[in-house]
C-alpha cells in the first residue's frame, strides 16, 4: 500500500465509522446552512402552540407556536459553535499549560498542576455554573465556562505526553545541535503530542455539546428566544405528558451528535495509534 | 593550550536512595585533530561524561572544569552554551533510528542546523546540506533531502547523523556508541567514514564505546573507565601492547582477536559493576579481580604511572604501581593467568 492517510484506511475497514462520518457531515451541513434550509424564522410565532407534525410544520410547533424544525436547525449551529470554541479554549490553554509544566518542571510544574487539580476538584457542570455566576449568563460566557472547565484534563494529558517525549533520543539530539527551548517545543515535542490531543478533543467536543445543553436547560446558556437544544428540552419537558416530541426531538439531536462524535474519536485514535493499527490489521 | 581540558570532572545525581556519583575525578586533555577513545561497560559513566561536556544533563550536579577554547563549559551561561552545541562541539548518538525527528525531512533537519548556527539563507543551507549528504556517501543527495528518516536504512541514517554533526564544521565531535545499533557489516564502514572525515577536517574526535575493537584502529589515545573513574590511560598502541590494569586485561580476554590462539575459550569478566550509590571503600574493581590483595580492600588506589611504563601509562591499580605494599603485578603476563 502506498502512503495512504491512516484515517482513511481505518475508515475503509469499518462501516460504523463510515455511517458516523456520513451523519457527522449531515450535522455539519445543517450547522453551516441551517438558516437557509430552515423553512421559517425560528423566533416567530406562526400558529397555535403544540401542534402535531404536519405538512406545514414537519416537526410540529412548540409551546408558543414556533416551528420546531427551524429551531432545531438553528440550534445545531449554536451547538457547533459552542462545542468548537469551548474545546478550542480547553485545547489551546490546556496544551500550553501542560507543555510548560512538563518542559520546565520544578516550580512551574508544581504551580500549574496544583492549579489544575483545584479546577479538577469541581464537577464539570458545577464549575461552569460557578463561572457563569461570576460572568453572567449568555452564549459567550457559556463557551468560556465550558472551555475553562476542560483545561485541566487537556493540561494533564499534554503534560504526560510531553514528559514521555522529552526522553526521546531525537529531542536530546536536537539539543545537541544547539536547538533552543522554543524550537524544541515547537518542532520536537508539540507535533508528536498532537495526535493524542486531537483524539481527546473529539471526546471533549461531545462533552461540550452536553454541557451547553445542560446550561441552556438551566437557563444559563443561550438566552431565549435564541433557539438551543438544551433550552428546547427545558421548555419541552413541561409538556412531556401531552406533547413528548417537544423534548424528545432536541434530545435525539443531541444524542445523535454525541454518538457520532464518540465513534469518530475512537476511529481517529485507532488510526493515529500505530500499536492499535498493528493489532487490528489482519496480516496481508 | 589543549582544545579540550577536562579537569577533575564529576557528575552526581540525586536519587531517592542517596547521591549517585556517575563520574568521579576524570581528567584528560585533547589537542586539535586528535582522537580519543573512551572504553567501558554499561554504567561506567562514559555517556554521562559526554553529555556533561555538551551540557545536556541538567539533572546532574557537575564539578570540576571543562576547558574548551579558553572557556569553562561548566560555568558558561545557557545561551552561549547553546551556540557552542552543534557548531563548535557536535555529538553523534547511539541509535540513528530514534535520533532523527521522524516527522521532518532529512533536508529540513540539516538546513535547520546550518541556518541556526551560520545564518545562511535557505538556498545556501540547502546547497550545503546536499553537499554534506554527498560527503557522507549518500547517493542522489538532492533527491534524498526530501526524504523522511524512515525512508533511510540504519547505516544511511547514521551517515545522516554524521552529516548533521559535521554541518557547521565543529572542532570536536563526540561519538557515543555510534556503531552499537548498526549491523556488523555496516559498523566498519561508518567508523571508517567518521575517521576519514575527521582527519580531513582536522576535527578532534571522542569515540565512546564498550568495544575495544572500535578503539583499536581509530583512536590515538584511550581512557578505560570503570565505576565512574578512569582506571587506565595510555596511547592506543601502548594500551594494546602493554595493558596494565586487570580490568583492561579482562576486556581484552573477553574479546575475540585474530592474533590469539583461537582454540581457547573467551574469558568473561565475572561479577557485576560496583553499586555507585554506595561504592566499595577500596579499589572498585576488587570484587571482580583475581589478583586482588588485602590492600585493595582497605585503600583506593590513585590514577598513577605504571611502575614499568612510567610516562606512557597511567593506571589505577595497586598491583602495577611502585608504592609501599604494592607492585605485585609488575612484569606479569596476563595472557598466562597466574593464581595470585
UniProtKB/TrEMBL annotation, chain A:
It is a multi-pass membrane protein. Its main location: membrane. InterPro entries: BP-dependent_transpt_permease, MetI-like, MetI-like_sf, OppC_N. Keywords: Cell membrane, Membrane, Peptide transport, Protein transport, Transmembrane, Transmembrane helix, Transport. GO terms for biological process: peptide transport; protein transport; transmembrane transport. SUPFAM superfamilies: MetI-like. Residues 76-265 form the ABC transmembrane type-1 domain. It is found in: Cell membrane. GO terms for cellular component: plasma membrane. It holds the Pfam family BPD_transp_1. The chain crosses the membrane at residues 20-38, 78-104, 116-136, 189-210, 245-264. Belongs to the binding-protein-dependent transport system permease family. This is Probable ABC-transport protein, inner membrane component.
Amino acid at each position: 500500500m502506498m502512503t495512504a492517510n491512516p484515517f482513511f484506511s481505518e475508515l475503509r475497514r469499518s462501516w460504523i465509522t463510515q455511517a458516523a462520518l456520513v451523519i457527522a457531515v449531515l450535522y455539519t451541513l445543517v450547522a453551516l446552512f441551517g438558516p437557509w434550509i430552515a423553512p421559517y424564522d425560528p423566533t416567530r410565532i406562526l400558529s397555535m402552540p403544540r401542534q402535531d407534525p404536519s405538512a406545514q410544520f414537519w416537526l410540529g410547533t412548540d409551546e408558543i407556536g414556533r416551528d420546531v424544525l427551524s429551531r432545531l436547525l438553528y440550534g445545531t449551529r449554536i451547538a457547533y459553535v459552542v462545542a468548537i470554541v469551548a474545546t478550542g479554549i480547553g485545547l489551546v490553554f490546556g496544551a500550553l499549560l501542560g507543555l510548560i509544566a512538563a518542559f520546565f518542571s520544578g516550580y512551574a510544574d508544581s504551580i500549574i498542576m496544583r492549579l489544575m487539580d483545584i479546577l479538577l476538584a469541581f464537577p464539570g457542570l458545577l464549575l461552569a455554573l460557578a463561572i457563569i455566576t461570576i460572568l453572567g449568563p449568555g452564549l459567550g460566557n457559556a463557551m468560556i465556562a465550558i472551555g475553562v472547565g476542560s483545561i485541566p484534563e487537556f493540561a494533564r494529558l499534554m503534560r504526560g505526553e510531553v514528559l514521555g517525549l522529552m526522553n526521546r533520543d531525537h529531542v536530546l539530539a536536537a539539543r545537541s545541535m544547539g536547538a533552543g527551548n522554543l524550537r524544541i517545543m515547537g518542532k520536537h515535542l508539540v507535533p508528536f503530542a498532537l495526535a493524542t490531543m486531537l483524539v481527546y478533543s473529539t471526546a471533549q467536543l461531545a462533552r461540550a455539546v452536553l454541557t451547553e445543553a445542560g446550561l441552556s436547560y438551566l437557563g444559563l446558556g443561550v438566552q431565549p428566544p435564541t433557539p438551543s437544544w438544551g433550552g428546547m428540552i427545558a421548555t419541552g419537558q413541561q409538556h412531556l405528558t401531552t406533547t413528548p416530541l417537544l423534548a424528545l426531538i432536541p434530545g435525539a439531536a443531541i444524542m445523535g451528535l454525541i454518538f457520532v462524535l464518540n465513534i469518530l474519536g475512537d476511529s481517529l485514535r485507532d488510526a493515529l495509534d500505530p500499536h492499535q493499527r498493528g493489532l487490528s490489521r489482519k496480516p496481508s | 593550550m589543549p582544545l579540550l581540558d577536562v579537569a577533575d570532572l564529576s557528575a552526581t545525581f540525586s536519587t531517592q536512595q542517596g547521591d549517585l556519583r556517575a563520574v568521579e575525578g576524570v581528567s584528560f586533555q585533547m589537542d586539535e585533530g586528535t582522537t580519543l577513545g573512551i572504553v567501558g561497560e554499561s554504567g561506567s559513566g562514559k555517556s554521562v561524561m559526554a553529555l556533561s561536556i555538551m551540557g545536556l544533563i541538567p539533572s546532574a550536579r557537575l564539578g570540576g572544569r571543562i576547558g574548551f577554547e579558553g572557556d569553562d563549559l561548566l560555568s558558561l551561561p545557557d545561551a552561549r552554551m547553546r551556540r557552542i552545541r552543534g557548531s563548535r562541539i557536535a555529538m553523534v548518538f547511539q541509535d540513528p533510528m530514534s535520533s532523527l525527528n521522524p516527522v521532518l525531512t532529512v533536508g529540513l533537519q540539516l538546513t535547520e542546523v546550518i541556518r541556526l548556527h551560520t545564518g545562511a539563507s535557505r538556498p545556501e543551507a540547502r546547497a550545503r546540506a546536499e553537499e554534506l549528504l554527498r560527503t557522507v556517501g549518500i547517493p542522489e543527495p538532492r533527491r534524498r533531502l526530501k526524504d523522511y528518516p524512515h525512508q533511510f536504512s540504519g547505516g544511511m541514517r547514521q551517515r545522516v547523523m554524521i552529516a548533521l554533526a559535521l554541518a557547521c564544521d565543529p572542532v570536536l565531535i563526540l561519538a557515543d556508541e555510534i556503531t552499537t545499533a548498526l549491523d556488523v557489516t555496516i559498523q566498519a564502514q561508518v567508523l571508517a567514514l567518521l575517521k576519514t572525515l575527521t582527519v580531513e577536517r582536522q576535527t578532534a574526535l571522542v569515540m565512546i564505546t564498550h568495544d575495544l575493537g572500535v578503539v583499536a584502529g581509530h583512536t590515538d589515545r584511550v581512557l578505560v573507565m570503570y565505576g565512574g573513574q578512569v582506571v587506565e590511560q595510555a596511547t592506543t598502541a601502548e594500551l594494546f601492547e602493554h595493558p596494565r590494569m586487570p580490568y583492561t586485561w579482562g576486556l581484552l580476554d573477553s574479546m575475540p582477536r585474530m592474533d590469539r590462539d583461537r582454540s581457547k575459550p573467551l574469558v568473561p569478566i565475572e561479577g557485576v559493576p560496583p553499586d555507585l550509590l554506595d561504592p566499595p571503600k577500596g579499589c572498585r574493581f576488587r570484587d571482580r579481580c583475581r589478583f586482588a590483595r588485602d590492600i585493595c580492600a582497605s585503600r583506593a588506589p590513585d590514577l598513577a604511572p605504571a611502575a614499568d611504563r612510567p610516562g606512557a601509562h597511567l593506571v589505577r591499580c595497586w598491583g602495577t604501581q611502585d608504592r609501599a605494599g604494592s607492585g605485585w603485578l609488575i612484569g606479569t603476563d596476563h595472557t598466562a593467568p597466574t593464581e595470585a
